[in-house]
Amino acid sequence: MTQKRLLIANRGEIALRIIRSAKEMDLHTIAVYSDVDTDSLHVKRADESYYLGGSLPAESYRNIKSLMKAVEETNADLVHPGYGFLAENADFAKAVQKKGVTWIGPNAETIKSMGDKIESRKLISKAGLQPVPGQLKPSRTKREALKDANKFGYPVALKAAHGGGGKGLRIVKNDDELDENFEIVKRESEAYFGSDQVYVEKFIKPARHVETQILSDKFGNHIYLGERDCSLQRRNQKLIEESPPIWLSEYGQEKLREATMKIAKTSNYINAGTVEFLADADENFYFLEMNTRLQVEHTVTEMRYGIDIVKEQIKIALGNSLEDFVVEPRGHSIEFRINAEDPNNNFLPTPGTITEYREPMGNGVRVDGWVKTGTAISHFYDNLIAKLIVWGVSREEALSKGQRCLEEYIVGGIPTTINVLSDVLKTKEFKEGRIHVKFLEENFKIKEIEEEISTDRPSKVNISLDETGSPTLAPQPPKKIGMDLTGSIKNPGIVTAGMQGTIMDTMTKKGKKVKKGDSLFVLEAMKMENVITAPINGTIKEFNIKKGQPVNKGDVLVEIEL
Length: 562
Known about the structure:
By secondary structure, this protein is α+β, with helices and mostly antiparallel strands. Among the domains are: about 5-105, Rossmann fold (3-Layer(aba) Sandwich); about 135-200, Dna Ligase, domain 1; about 205-330, ATP-grasp fold, B domain (D-amino Acid Aminotransferase, Chain A, domain 1, 2-Layer Sandwich), CATH 3.30.470; about 495-560, CATH 2.40.50.100. Helices cover about 25% and strands about 30% of the residues. The chain has an 8-stranded antiparallel beta sheet, sandwiched between helices. The protein has a 5-stranded parallel beta sheet with strand order 3-2-1-4-5. A hairpin with an 8-residue loop joins strand 6 and strand 7. The model is unreliable at about 445-490 (pLDDT under 50).
């Protein structure tokens, strides 16, 4: 029989993870890569590789045209999108399927309906389930959003209708904050997801973030694979996930199982999927969204159930039935995200070269990573270095194993989240399972650092524990991030990036005359937008940026000529 050819439309950790499973299934693996990833491990480990284009995601991993050319020229039989980039892009899935190539995931129609926050809310409501209180239509204007917010009562969340991963999301506490953030969310939504639709949703506080895992085949069989607690977050992005949630009662488990199975059946779901819920203190569950793809934290479920979800995805896509699929959960598993970020500087990304790299080992320990000593972490992509997953017979054993592994884990050359993860495990709240989505923001101490002249820097995050093992309360929120607009004395018209971020919008171009204080561009960093203005009067000599472009600290972005 001819060996089937699998193209992995992704990079880094998830590309390597898919390659490993595919090779064990005797599939021919095809990696794709950008300029930055020429020497990446996923390129070296695949049986074949294909060059996509430049470093920007829009030029490579988010470029449907380039990816479809890769599918065609490599004669791929299957495409696995991983997570992120185009994993939940219905147009990409449709293009793959139109070529007669097997898409490893749900069909394009399901991706479109469940990926649209508003449409998915409508479907869930028709199924008799309760989403987070919010609109079933987008708020087209700021006036409509204000009306919706006052209807549900503050605080509310302004959310991108097609968003995810914490992007295109702002929590607002009053009319003034909504007024300030509405256009920002619209702009982020357009930049990240290609749509500026925004809707208003009630913000549940304090809330726990819990999600459920399913596998579904084309014959109508749906397998429920338990729950994961994903409440430990910063900037609406997860840092620690565990299964099962320690706080979840048997009654709560049954409610989540019933809701998940109803969603899977109502949506005619096929392949692997994740349903996300918010839970209040009384175990009232509110549908949040469905991720029509492999989830980053799928490894937590794999460790607890002893399965390979990627292999099951491929089998389902090839037409296999889940009728005889039987698994039972055992023990407790926890995942820690090792990111290139500085917890002592508001979790700012820290691109750079890894000078030393050593992973922890031992029974019940798994590391899904993509780096080695000498790997350069680029500012163009997500800063996830690896996922550390541990398993124990009990939660206590898993926690002890996790603490030991974090102490053994060495990443030299750049700051990472390793130390803060270790500190979190020591808190009384985490040990007792009393974590909520705003735990880090509300309980960890935040201090300002000294400012440089004409420069606003991010606040410094210092974590300290009191005698009870609990973090001290935050006396103040972090400062808004700005840019150094002064340039040097010799070059007052030079505008450089004061920190890593993404260009969200541009308001001028090369050759245009500007006055001091005129808006040049919008820089998003750490989920905060900064309107960068001209430091002098003059003419734009160089304008080295475009919408959607990531920039690194120190990059020369604009030059103004007197």
